[in-house]
Write a structure and sequence with these properties.
Elements (H helix, E strand, L loop, with lengths): L4 H29 L4 H21 L9 H19 L1 H6 L5 H12 L15 H16 L1 H6 L2 H4 L4 H7 L12 H26 L3 H12 L18 H14 L3 H8 L3 H5 L2 H28 L8 E2 L2 E2 H15 L14 H10 L15 H19 L8 E2 L2 E2 L2 H27 L4 H13 L19 H15 L3 H4 L11
Antiparallel strand pairs: 1-2, 3-4
Length: about 500
């Protein structure tokens, strides 16, 4: 079966219209703040809108049928199209004139990685900072999920796109119609963003900072309007606690949020992935917070210059909680440089980069549910060794998991670790030291943001070699789309006409 190229490019045009529309939204904010970037943002938005309209007009006579191959192509190349067009605000304003750096910053935004090449974020005009946060917010729930919400109006089925965008093991749907599912997800996403903006504003942030950090939080992205990230508000614990709460929500399956709003709380608290997710956060916070406080106790000073509260260091456990949640959910906000706490904790945080949040959330990484399936299957292998004739299926939420899903999870994990190894070797070949190479590979593939070594939380990626930035951008993309969606395009059988 030949590919329906017209519908593929028609969809690219539609995505460009979305992108251009969001650029104009950033233009309005730029005009409101009179930041000097209004004209450049307007020209960028209009350029993208016009080009998208031309593409759609030229491909309007397409067959309204889309199979899986076309779905994968739209998703994978759709992100590239969005990234290429998304660089225009940076280039037109002159904030990032170098193309490679503009690509890196843009794809880091859309994939919600949060790595940056900018040395002075606070010098950027407000409109551009808002656009930077918008790339997170658009990419968080997924560019394609946003688009399929209106595909009903175009007479195009969206199931193939949803499957390619969210290829994880969970197949729960809120509604039999995929467009209704997308709309409900975006309604929850928007509601959480508005709620966090309100709470942060009340807690002491300016409305502009609150809005930008809310978009970064709910997308589990990590871009900040401050050079010091959330550490800028270390003297305002309430702000950090609010961000922690919404990072946890963003890393939780959004379908569980829907059930909670419908009053079905029992389904939420009994969900195995949700329970393991919270156990991980609690256990790692206590361990890391205890080590920080103990080290501070030995030196006779409280951690982070905060007073001791209830006999323990409140600051120690707050920063431990903040960084554990930020890394597990792959948000990547920074309240302190965790790489200098101790060698033991450095290894701890490196391991957390491979956890990821829940399936059906905006977080990156392997995802908790995959770890859960792997752990359960591993224990069952012991039983199968003793009882080779017994039928012992993996069970998740009291339901039997099919062998196909177990094999998919095993395959994903192996492919993920191979991608990490190859990614690390690539950075090592480009001259990065061992710690930096494995740190950037894990961070980029998991869409975490801060890495290790020369690219840790207190540094940025400006000094990375040009080839390294492109390599990191590729890892961000395959990590965001969970490997299969992109890597399948490199297989010869994908392109054979059947």
């Amino acid at each position: 079966m030949k590919l329906n190229y017209k519908i593929i490019f028609y969809f690219f045009g539609l995505l460009l219209l979305f992108n251009g529309g969001f650029m104009l939204l950033a233009t309005f904010l730029s005009f409101f703040y009179n930041d000097g970037a209004t004209l450049h943002l307007f020209l960028a938005g209009i350029s993208v809108l016009v080009f998208g309209a031309i593409v759609m007009v030229c491909t309007k006579n397409h067959t309204k049928e889309m199979n899986k191959r076309e779905g994968y192509l739209v998703v994978a190349f759709g992100w590239i199209v969005m990234t290429l067009s998304g660089t225009l605000p940076y280039i037109f304003t002159g904030a990032i004139p170098e193309f490679t750096n503009a690509i890196f910053e843009t794809i880091s935004g859309y994939t919600t990685t949060g790595s940056t090449i900018l040395n002075d974020v606070e010098s950027l005009p407000e409109g551009l900072l808002f656009w930077r946060s918008l790339t997170h917010w658009i990419g968080g729930m997924g560019i394609i999920v946003l688009a399929i919400a209106i595909l009903q109006l175009l007479g195009i089925g969206g199931m193939q796109l949803f499957a390619a965008e969210a290829p994880g093991p969970s197949a729960d749907k809120l509604n039999p119609r995929i467009t209704d599912t997308a709309k409900r997800l975006w309604l929850i996403y928007f509601g959480y963003t508005a709620a966090e903006t309100l709470f942060l504003s009340v807690a002491g942030m300016s409305f502009f900072d609150a809005l930008n950090h809310s978009m970064s939080t709910l997308s589990t992205g990590g871009f900040s309007t401050k050079n010091a990230s959330v550490a800028h508000w270390n003297d305002t614990p309430l702000i950090q606690y609010i961000i922690i709460v919404f990072m946890v929500l963003a890393g939780t399956n959004f379908i569980l949020s829907y059930f909670a709003f419908k009053g079905n709380v029992i389904k939420v608290v009994k969900d195995e992935e949700f329970k393991l997710y919270f156990k991980f956060i609690l256990i790692f916070t206590l361990l890391i917070g205890g080590v920080i406080w103990y080290n501070a106790f030995l030196t006779g000073t409280s951690a982070f210059n905060h007073p001791l509260v209830w006999g323990i260091g409140e600051g120690s456990f707050r920063h431990a909680l903040f960084q554990v949640v930020a890394i597990i959910t792959t948000t990547g906000f920074v309240s302190a440089d965790f790489t200098i706490w101790s060698p033991l904790l450095l290894v701890f945080f490196f391991g957390l980069m491979f956890l990821g949040g829940s399936a059906g959330s905006t977080s990156g990484g392997v995802k908790i549910v995959r770890h859960l399936v792997l752990i359960k299957n591993g224990f069952l292998e012991f039983k199968r060794t003793l009882h080779p004739s017994a039928i012992l299926p993996v069970r998740y939420n009291n339901k039997s998991v099919s062998g196909d899903i177990v094999f998919n999870v095993l395959g994903f994990f192996i492919l993920y670790m191979l991608s990490f190894i190859v990614g690390s070797l690539g950075f090592a070949l480009l001259g990065l030291d061992f710690e930096s190479a494995i740190g950037v590979a894990a961070s980029s593939l998991g869409n975490v943001g801060p890495a290790l070594g020369e690219f840790g939380p207190s540094h940025n990626f400006f000094e990375m070699p040009t080839a390294g930035k492109w390599w990191a951008a590729f890892l961000m993309l395959i990590g965001r789309l969970e490997l299969f969606t992109v890597l399948i395009l490199f297989t010869p059988f994908f392109w054979r006409n059947r």
